[in-house]
Design a protein that fits this description.
Layout (H helix, E strand, L loop, with lengths): L18 H5 L5 H10 L11 E12 L2 E4 L2 E4 L8 H4 L11 H17 L6 H7 L10 H9 L6 H12 L19 H17 L8 E2 L4 E8 L5 E9 L10 E5 L8 E7 L2 E2 L30 H12 L5 E2 L8 E12 L4 E4 L34 E3 L7 E2 L4 E8 L4 E10 L5 E3 H4 L14 E6 L6 E6 L9 E4 L22 E3 L8 E11 L5 E11 L10 E6 L4
Antiparallel strand pairs: 1-8, 1-11, 2-3, 2-5, 4-5, 5-6, 6-7, 9-10, 11-12, 11-13, 14-22, 15-16, 15-22, 16-17, 16-19, 18-24, 19-20, 20-21, 22-23
């Protein structure tokens, strides 16, 4: 007959007085033995506690980055990989008043850093900031900077071709015929061009997929016995960690630099909030009550996590391994010595040698391991070059993608766009519908093909594709509208842009473009504009109606 043991007991009082339970009196030895029997302490297991661990392996750092624009050398010491992958570059023809001033001001700073203060006035006169076509805060900004900084748009258009030549040059033709050109000026202009390259460019050349609303990129880690390509095929933006990547095996590279690890450490017991205490008479921390978690019988993941935390939590130990950021680590041996002096060699859980007793074709569950494209478990641990702490700004641009079941359409709604002065501009606040009035007494009705929607609502119309292709939605203008401003004013959506139908679920999508600031391992700060796609806020209704009748004379 099998003997059952209680792995966790919780007291239940029969009265309102807690004094008896808190006293925890020991009435007799039999009562104590019963408690030991409940906890399984009488099983007599002779398992030793780990006291010494020798961990050997090798680590290799990534050296290149790849996205739709091709391969580029990448050193993790230069900054987080998100600054490369998430950065949404501005279209080169989109020059707001704020960008014209900022780029021109950066050119002034580069000249003054090189000791060329006398050239600032000549450049400001050669590329004056024009006020034509601007009003409000934008006109005030240009008027304030006029005569002090050059127009960044004109300076970039005139200077950029020559600065990219070999050797770089600055033209002496009008409007720069009054400017003294020497090597110091050229060096300062080249430094300024590097800043322009960081904020200008074409979004299609980056990792952002405007049709799938996600980032696609990878980093390469070479290896003498076989390299690894860490592929992020569907990164929505935001937190980037080891689970964001899949591993792809690469050919061996004998020239790859690697660092050997051979460390002897003392393991420490794993600890987490809400963990049961190992002592019978020790009060547990009540900040997290894992025993009170409500798990459905079909919620296997939550039940497995609770089983680990409540039953096997004190069976896990932690061994620290110091790695450089942006490394891939491959373990060779883990030798554990316990209190009885017995040394045990531990192999990875995914190793075929540890698969005794498993069903054919079955895989073991592992933690902190990557999978390959075929679903196999990779034998490497990844410490990605990602930023841990970030500061995010308010959205510079925000678009809501939602489904409208009543109109049988999906919509792209521009909630926030970047204004000409660089500040967020809320399009919903700019929309002022005509006031409602009582219908005329004529009694006449006129036919309407369809009603109108706000000018910042753009329909996503299904596109007819060849048989077998995935459904696609295209951003199109409204066929009938009363607004002259019914077109996208931002960069996240544009007329003719195609979106995959499966990327807009019932809860919708929220696209945002904001600024992210982080500090890297060497103390330097990195700033970039991020594209991010998150869950929406559910379905919506545009109020669009077809074949409507309205009061008033016919046209």
């Amino acid at each position: 007959m099998p003997i059952a043991f209680h792995l966790r007991t919780e007291p239940r009082t029969r009265s309102d007085d807690l004094a008896a339970g808190l006293a925890a009196r020991v009435y007799d030895p039999a009562w104590t033995l019963a408690r030991q029997w409940q906890l399984g302490e009488l099983n007599g297991d002779s398992g030793g506690t780990p006291v010494r661990v020798r961990h050997t392996g090798e680590s290799i750092r990534c050296n290149s980055y790849r996205d739709a624009g091709g391969d580029r050398p990448y050193d993790p010491d230069d900054g987080p990989v998100e600054a490369w992958a998430e950065a949404g570059f501005e279209p080169p023809d989109r020059w707001t008043a704020r960008r014209r001033v900022d780029v021109g001001r950066t050119l002034v700073r580069a000249l003054r850093a090189a000791g060329l203060d006398d050239r600032v006035e000549a450049l400001a006169a050669a590329f004056p900031l024009e006020l034509a076509g601007t009003a409000g805060p934008s006109a005030q900004l240009l008027a304030l900077a006029g005569g002090r900084v050059p127009d960044g748009a004109e300076a970039y258009r005139i200077l950029e071709p020559g600065l990219r030549a070999s050797p770089p040059t600055v033209p002496s033709t009008p409007p720069l015929d009054e400017l003294v050109v020497d090597d110091a000026l050229v060096d300062a202009a080249v430094s300024w061009l590097g800043h322009c390259d960081a904020i200008l460019g074409t979004a299609a050349d980056g990792a952002w997929d405007a049709g799938r609303l996600e980032h696609h990129f990878s980093v390469t880690v070479p290896g003498p016995s076989g390299g690894v390509e860490l592929v992020a095929d569907a990164h929505p933006g935001g937190s980037l960690d080891w689970w964001s990547f899949d591993a792809r095996t690469l050919p061996a590279d004998a020239t790859a630099a690697r660092q050997a690890h051979d460390a002897i450490t003392i393991p420490t017991a794993a600890a987490f909030r809400g963990m049961p205490t190992p002592r019978w008479w020790q009060e547990e921390d009540a900040s997290i009550d894992l025993g009170g978690v409500d798990a459905h019988p079909a919620d296997l993941a939550r039940m497995a996590l609770l089983q680990f935390a409540l039953v096997y939590g004190n069976d896990h130990f932690v061994v620290p391994v110091r790695l450089a950021v942006g490394s891939v680590f491959r373990t060779s041996h883990v030798l554990v010595t316990d209190t009885f002096g017995v040394t045990t060699s531990i192999r990875p859980a995914a190793d075929p040698a540890t698969g005794a007793g498993r069903a054919p074709g079955a895989t073991r569950w592992t933690m902190f391991t990557l999978t390959t494209a075929g679903g196999a478990v990779a034998d490497v641990f990844v410490l990605p070059p990602s930023a841990v702490h970030r500061l995010s700004s308010a959205p510079v641009e925000e678009v809501l993608l939602l489904r409208d079941e009543m109109a049988n359409l999906a919509w792209a709604i521009e909630a926030v766009v970047e204004g000409d002065d660089g500040r967020p501009r809320r399009r919903a606040e700019e929309y002022h519908p005509a006031p409602f009035t009582d219908p005329p007494d004529t009694g006449m009705l006129r036919y309407q093909l369809g009603t109108t929607v706000p000018p910042h609502w753009f329909p996503l119309v299904p596109v007819r594709l060849p048989h077998g292709d995935a459904p696609t939605l295209e951003v199109q203008p409204m066929a009938f509208t009363e607004s002259d401003d019914a077109e996208p004013a931002g960069t996240l959506v544009a007329f003719g842009q195609e979106l995959a139908d499966d990327r807009i679920p019932r809860e919708g999508r929220r696209l945002r473009r904001d600024q992210v600031l982080t500090r890297w391992t060497d103390g330097t700060t990195h700033l970039w504009r991020r594209h991010q796609a998150t869950a929406g806020r559910g379905e919506g209704s545009s109020g669009l109606r077809f074949d409507a009748a309205a009061h008033g004379p016919t046209d």
